[in-house]
Design a protein that fits this description.
Length: 1030
């Protein structure tokens, strides 16, 4: 690095505006172009005294070094206070950068003074001061910064772009400093704070590093206001006549939401009064509800009259009640207006029944109306029909009456531990309390069973181990029963207690077997070794059989379709047998030998299984393989000498040809004779067979040639052998590569040592630390086995720097070793965050730990603060909330509904899900406890207020994004959607006990029409109600 001090070169005529925040904001409008003093026109209200700065660029012989000469910066003092809020004077900024343009918060970029250019050797910036700089450097923060004005030192930067200041004695400054009249700050490592708050909680400009005062700033996506001392304001404030609020914790301005004082501030941060307020940050059940703030900005709660209309706001959080029942028992419509529902009668609203009492209020909870026990939900007040209440009591689908002591059949979604519940139909029995009964029960004198969910066992075994009839559900005794399974039909026999019997049994005079598990053995062997007929189930004697057990409960598949012979004891014969005058053979498992040489050495016919005489003392070919028959006509195995030649036959008697045998010797591919003293090619590899018939290994001299073979006997060609020498890829001869030089072979670099062998491991060559792997290849652009990284070009070991590999960035220390610990690490005075686990690397476009439960870091290793979407390097999108969490399930963001990994997914990591038609399930036994949505695969947002065709079915997604169900009026047409959201088209549907028909094309309800449907004629009146005419 070259440092130039005492620079006195020519000064530019273009003067840079000084660094105080007020001045910077005054010239905010000029940031898009060079802001020169001659061009800046201060507003009359601020009358700023600006003094120039001068820049110059110096090109050296080795580096391009940027040098800045700074003269006399200026700041203004303009903060005053009021009673309970701080009123920041409008003198803080000019009309070109007022707080009314809060979105244009100050970057305080007023000069190009510390914009580091990329240079391997870094940059140096020299500061030269004048008497005027010392006397006119006005600072409202003199009490928090050094009173001593430092001059005569120099700024310089490192290769990472960090700036430092070295004073005249050569010492790096730290902490708050005034340099050349400008208040700046350096951390404990001497790095200048820029575009951030320092430890003294003051903010410093991102470009100049100067202390920022009396203005709005935009930092990490949030807005702050720093006072005359450069510290962020907190709490309620009045700035330029506008009431605003800053977070009590860190001074972040509250925008588009309620502050901790319960006042609402709009998207520009201004206090809202006497108005309804809406914010996407406040939603319930995927619906955005408004609030109303009074003239003081306080939320209204309870009953209110607004614009002459009776409305209601939740007594706890102040959200307006809409299309629902309020705490006071009154119903408010979708616009929030009170609805007079009359008294002492049922009313039907939004597909639900309610009951209005004598005071005109909606009833809730358990009630007895006209002597009937009914139930209304405790929060919304709608009647439960055909469903369970929160206490598990069931109410009739038509009357709404509590159902007791009665069977019911329900079709509903059931979750079986998987992510996607299935639609199932089950019988239940409701006890005297209206709740489902479980376990064994006696109902009307009949023993029945219900599982833990209340499902009645029918045509199956209950969890108690007993079988229950498929029609009546009654306990079955003294009877055969069967269960259909994918593998086949399973048959059981139940005794007079209903227990399954096992093992050998006599039933109705027949000898049967039910094995170890109570499943009847048919067409198979039982554990007792007897074979039972596939039809009668009785033991078989004196006949050939094949396994015909479709359930495969008592034998393995490999014996299926094989032949056995069952003897007089009902067991399989084994070994040599004569059956019906024919010599046959069965192996140790009783399987008949067919088309093979059996264990006795003889061949048996592939069709009849009879023994075949193939002769003796000769070679025979069977099924493409060669065998040798001895003088008994049996096949030989292992090493054999035939006619003076060495041969080998494997364990099945097949002759080994063109291959290595189990004894390690190689046998000729044509004659099968053992090979000696010659090269052979096997599987495209060369071997040298020695005098003993086995392959040579290691370094050898063959016919005067130095050659080498690996541990399997394969000849080394075109590579280095384990002895360190290189062998020709053509001849296989050892090649003299010389000594002490690099050698490139097949695009890999090697180093040949002074003994002519390739080097391995860590080496120092020509003063450079390099590494060669176990095969001698030089490691380049990768980590070696010693955990050091070597340069991709030179191969030199890298130290104290970041390295990139396979899309990840690592750090190697002063010894060249990879950083092996995650977390925050300080490197060259700057903090970096590394991932944990077995592969610690710089956290970039990823979560610090798996599954999105921790901080997300961007491409620059900066922690991402929410709320915002992020995209990880794996391509998945996530959303970071303001509190730093990654949401799961459904969430409304900026007015749009998104689905993030379902919470029921064991491996959910919060990624955005855009899978088209999606069901959002809730862990509840209550039917209809779920909604159907459609998430656009491009935008990932849920559609609403529109039709959508999916897989040939039409759906309508309503204002709350989910698919509508039941009868609806859409665009003036009466239409109907089933419980699964599919539109009824060309169907007869019963709606509230009335028969309706929906057009097969438009789906509209048919009215004032007579139609013949499937041979029956109906008339539909003006309300669409149908009547069968014939």
């Amino acid at each position: 690095m070259k440092v130039h001090s005492n620079f006195t070169g020519p000064k530019s005529k273009k003067r840079l505006i000084a660094f105080s925040c007020a001045t910077a904001l005054a010239s905010f409008a000029f940031i898009a172009k060079p802001a020169f003093a001659e061009e800046a026109k201060a507003d009359n209200a601020s009358n700023l005294d600006t003094t120039a700065a001068t820049t110059a660029n110096v090109e050296t012989t080795a580096d391009l070094v940027e040098t800045k000469v700074v003269e006399a910066p200026v700041t203004t003092e303009n903060v005053a206070s009021t009673e309970n809020t701080t009123n920041v004077s409008e003198q803080a900024s000019t009309s070109t950068a007022s707080s009314e343009t809060a979105s244009e918060t100050a970057s305080t970029t007023t000069s190009e003074s510390q914009a580091p250019a990329e240079s391997v050797s870094g940059q140096t910036r020299e500061a030269v001061t004048t008497d005027r700089a010392a006397s006119e450097a006005a600072s409202a923060t003199a009490d928090t910064n050094s009173e001593t004005n430092v001059t005569g030192g120099q700024y310089y930067s490192d290769s990472l772009g960090n700036w430092y200041y070295k004073d005249a004695s050569g010492k790096n400054l730290t902490g708050a400093q005034k340099i050349d009249g400008i208040n700046v700050y350096f951390d404990e490592n001497g790095i200048q704070v820029k575009g951030n708050f320092s430890k003294n909680k003051q903010y410093y400009d991102a470009d100049s590093g100067a202390l920022v005062t009396d203005c709005y700033i935009n930092h990490l996506g949030g807005v702050y206001y720093v006072d005359k001392n450069g510290e962020p304001l907190k709490g309620a404030q009045t700035i330029q006549g506008k009431q605003v609020y800053f977070n009590d914790y860190n001074g972040l301005q509250v925008r588009d939401g309620f502050a901790s004082n319960e006042h609402f501030y709009d998207k520009d941060g201004n206090l809202v009064t006497d108005s309804y307020v809406f914010s996407t940050k406040y939603n319930y059940n995927n619906t955005i509800y408004p609030f109303y703030v009074d003239k003081n900005g306080d939320k209204l709660k309870g009953e209110q009259i607004i614009n002459g209309k009776s409305v209601y706001f939740d007594k706890y959080d102040g959200a307006q009640v809409r299309n629902s029942v309020a705490d006071n028992g009154r119903f408010y419509d979708q616009d929030g207006n009170l609805v007079d529902l009359g008294k002492k009668h049922y009313v039907f609203i939004d597909n639900h029944w309610f009951y209005v009492d004598e005071d005109g209020k909606i009833l809730k909870g358990e009630q007895v109306i006209d002597g009937v026990k009914v139930y209304f939900t405790p929060y919304y007040g709608y009647q439960i029909k055909g469903d369970f209440n929160s206490d598990g009591q069931f109410y009739d689908k038509d009357t709404g009456e509590l159902v007791t002591n009665r069977y019911i059949q329900l079709t509903r979604y059931e979750s079986n531990g998987s992510m996607a519940p299935t639609l199932e139909t089950h019988w239940y029995y409701l006890g005297a309390d209206g709740k489902v009964v479980t376990g064994p029960q006696v109902i009307d004198g009949v023993r029945v069973y219900f599982n833990y969910r209340g499902h009645q066992a029918k045509g199956d075994f209950g969890y108690d181990g007993y079988y229950y009839d498929k029609d009546t559900g009654a306990l079955v005794k003294n009877s055969f029963v069967s269960l259909e399974q994918p593998s086949g039909t399973l048959i059981y026999y139940l005794d007079n207690e209903g227990n399954t019997i096992k093992g050998e049994q006599i039933i109705n005079g027949k000898h049967l077997n039910f094995g170890k598990y109570g499943i009847q053995v048919k067409g198979n062997f039982a554990p007792n070794g007897l074979f039972y007929d596939a039809i009668t189930g009785e033991p078989v004697t004196n006949r050939y059989v094949q396994i015909n057990d479709l359930s495969n409960s008592y034998n393995t598949h490999e014996n299926k379709d094989k032949w056995f012979y069952i003897g007089s004891d009902s067991k399989a014969l084994k070994g040599e047998q004569v059956i019906n005058g024919v010599t046959v053979f069965f192996d140790k498992d009783g399987v008949q030998a067919k088309g093979i040489f059996a264990d006795d050495g003889f061949y048996y016919d592939k069709d009849s299984g009879a023994r075949v005489n193939l002769g003796n003392n000769q070679f025979v070919q069977v099924n493409g393989n060669w065998y040798y028959l001895n003088n008994e006509g049996k096949i030989v195995k292992g090493e054999q000498v035939i006619d003076g030649n060495n041969f080998y036959f494997d364990k099945d008697g097949k002759q080994v040809k063109g291959n290595f045998a189990e004894n390690g010797a190689y046998y000729d591919e044509n004659s099968g004779v053992q090979v000696t003293n010659r090269y052979v090619n096997f599987n495209n590899n060369w071997y040298r067979i020695g005098a003993k018939g086995t392959p040579l290994k290691g370094a050898q001299v063959v016919d005067g040639h130095n050659v080498s073979f690996d541990q399997d006997g394969k000849q080394i060609k075109g590579d280095f052998a384990s002895d360190g020498y290189y062998y020709s890829k053509n001849s296989g001869d050892r090649v003299d590569l010389g000594q002490n030089h690099y050698q490139n072979i097949n695009n890999n670099w090697y180093y040949i040592g002074n003994d002519g062998k390739r080097l391995t491991g860590e080496q120092v060559i020509d003063g450079v630390e390099v590494y060669f792997d176990s095969t001698g290849k030089q490691v380049k652009g990768n980590f070696a086995e010693n955990d050091s990284f070597y340069d991709k070009d030179s191969g030199a070991r890298l130290k104290e720097q970041f390295v990139d590999l396979n899309g990840k960035t690592y750090y190697v220390d002063a010894k060249g070793k990879r950083l092996r610990e995650g977390g925050v690490r300080t490197i060259n005075g700057k903090e970096y965050t590394f991932t944990g686990g077995a592969d610690p690397h710089l956290a970039r476009e990823e979560f610090l730990y798996p599954y999105g439960y921790s901080s997300f870091y961007d491409l620059n290793n900066k922690e991402v603060k929410g709320p915002q979407f992020v995209k990880a390097k794996n391509g998945n999108r996530y959303y970071i909330t303001a509190s730093g969490h990654v949401p799961l399930g459904l969430h409304i963001i900026n007015g749009e509904l998104y689905m993030f990994d379902a919470p029921t997914n064991k491996y959910a990591d919060g990624r955005v899900s855009a899978n088209g038609l999606t069901k959002d399930y809730f862990p509840s036994l209550i039917p209809n406890g779920s909604h159907i949505y459609y998430f656009d695969k491009e935008t990932a947002t849920a559609i609403k207020n529109q039709y959508k065709e999916v897989n040939g079915n039409w759906y309508y997604f309503g204002p709350n994004w989910y698919a509508l169900t039941g009868e609806q009026t859409i665009d003036g047409a009466h239409v109907y959607f089933h419980r699964d959201g599919k539109q009824a088209k060309g169907e007869l549907v019963t709606v509230n006990d009335k028969l309706h028909y929906y057009d097969p094309n438009s789906g509209a309800r048919t009215e004032n029409t007579t139609l013949t449907i499937e041979g029956k004629t109906y008339h539909f009146d003006a309300e669409g109600n149908g009547k069968l005419l014939n």
